[in-house]
Every structure is written in structure tokens, then in C-alpha cells.
Design goal:
Elements (H helix, E strand, L loop, with lengths): L2 E7 L11 H6 L3 H11 L5 E6 L4 H12 L5 E4 L12 H9 L3 E4 L12 H19 L5 E3 L7 H10 L3 E3 L6 E2 L4 E2 L2 E2 L6 H10 L3 H16 L1
Parallel strand pairs: 1-2, 1-9, 2-3, 3-4, 5-6, 6-8
Antiparallel strand pairs: 1-7
Helix pairs in contact: 2-7, 5-6
Bound molecules: zinc ion.
Length: 220
């Protein structure tokens, strides 16, 4: 059973559209992002994921991964493709051609918790089908928008046949688990904190608190 630390990125570089304060906190300056990646090089227990399908995925993030020989999973929203500031359909294929994995982040980037069955079907299944058509292969990993999930969402993800699901609960993950908690790298997170997380994990007390919160979320 090997434990991994999964980092999660969002937009990088100049902010290209009006975004909420919460999203701005997750949108990294280029230098900060590159410095985080430098800490990741050679750390074989660290996995990289990128959410939302921003245009910066192909403009800054993938090239920065490639310069360091890193790979990642890019969780894309099918319904936002080809809209201003987001990835184009062709860019998704380009990311894949560059060795990146494409995952599903739903259709229009809304929290999956609280949706009715029809809405959930569109977010979990129709979006996946749309991405598979673009990628020409199976898309079997999903990341919950805003890290929002509950029992109903997890049941829907299982029924849709996803092989792995990613949350934003922090802490480390067991590579063989179906639910994979990630740590969102934020604008205000000092590099020393990222380095400690990579080298030592979140610490026993923090990991215990993370695990307890997670169990409550899965049961609600
Ligand atoms: Zn998102």
C-alpha cells in the first residue's frame, strides 16, 4: 500500500476573466507555480492534477510540466471548452498528445452536491461521454468541482463507472483507493509549507482530522 501526495492546481499566470476571491486564491503566479514544480521533481510519491480546463493549462502548465519531465491529470469541464479563457477542444487533444491524462470535471463547473438526478446525469455521465468523444479513448477519472460531494454524488460516480475520484480534502492518499484526496496549492501557501507537505506529509494530527472530516462527508 503506497501513500501518495496529490497536488491540485488551477489557473496559472495572468488572470484572464472575472473570478471570485476563492478562485483568485487558487490562481497562481507563474513564478510561484514553477517553484512548486521544482520541489516536486524527483519526488516519486507526488502526483499532479489540474482542474477547470483553463487556457493556461496548455499555455503555461503543460509546458512547465514537460520541461521537468512531469506528467499530470487535467480535469476538464466539457461544457466550458471553446469558451473564452478556457481550453479549446483541440487543446484537450494536444494535452493528451503531450502525454497528459484527461479527466472529467463535469459539464459547467457547478457543485455536484444537491443536484437532482437529471442534473447529476449531465454532470457525471454526459460530460464524460463528450470528453471521451474528444479524446478518442476512455475517460475514467473524475474530480469533484469545489471538492463538493456526499453519498449521493459518490453513488452516482460509482454508477457511471469511474475508476478513480478526486476530492480536495487534503492529506495523503492510498494509491489503490477509489477516493483520492488532494491538496489545493494556493496563492498564499508559502513554499516552505509545500515543501514540508511533500517531504513529511500533513503530520499525524492533521491527517487524523482530515480523515475524520472525510468520513463525515462520505456518509452525509
Ligand atoms: Zn474546479
Amino acid at each position: 500500500m503506497s501513500r501518495v501526495t496529490i497536488l491540485n492546481f488551477h489557473g496559472v499566470g495572468p488572470v484572464t476573466r472575472t473570478i471570485s476571491d476563492g478562485e483568485r486564491e487558487c490562481w497562481l503566479e507563474r513564478d510561484h507555480f514553477e517553484s512548486v514544480l521544482d520541489l516536486v521533481v524527483g519526488q516519486s510519491h507526488v502526483r499532479l492534477t489540474v482542474d477547470d480546463g483553463n487556457a493556461s493549462d496548455l499555455e503555461f502548465i503543460q509546458p512547465a510540466f514537460a520541461r521537468r519531465g512531469l506528467r499530470g491529470i487535467f480535469f476538464v469541464c466539457s461544457g466550458l471548452l471553446d469558451q473564452a479563457t478556457f481550453l479549446r477542444t483541440a487543446s484537450v487533444r494536444e494535452l493528451q498528445a503531450q502525454g497528459m491524462t484527461i479527466g472529467c470535471h463535469g459539464a459547467i463547473h457547478q457543485p455536484w452536491r444537491g443536484l437532482n438526478p437529471q442534473q447529476l446525469q449531465v454532470e457525471l455521465a454526459a460530460s464524460r461521454t463528450a470528453l471521451e468523444k474528444i479524446c478518442g479513448k476512455s475517460v475514467d477519472q473524475a474530480a469533484c468541482p469545489f471538492g463538493s460531494y456526499d453519498r449521493t454524488v459518490l453513488r452516482g460516480l460509482r454508477a457511471t463507472g469511474y475508476a478513480k475520484v478526486y476530492t480536495s480534502d487534503g492529506g495523503t492518499a492510498n494509491e489503490s483507493d477509489w477516493i483520492n484526496p488532494r491538496t489545493t496549492i494556493t496563492r498564499s501557501m508559502p513554499l516552505a509549507e509545500v515543501q514540508a507537505l511533500i517531504l513529511r506529509g500533513p503530520g499525524t494530527l492533521r491527517q487524523a482530522s482530515i480523515s475524520a472530516k472525510r468520513i463525515l462527508k462520505e456518509m452525509r
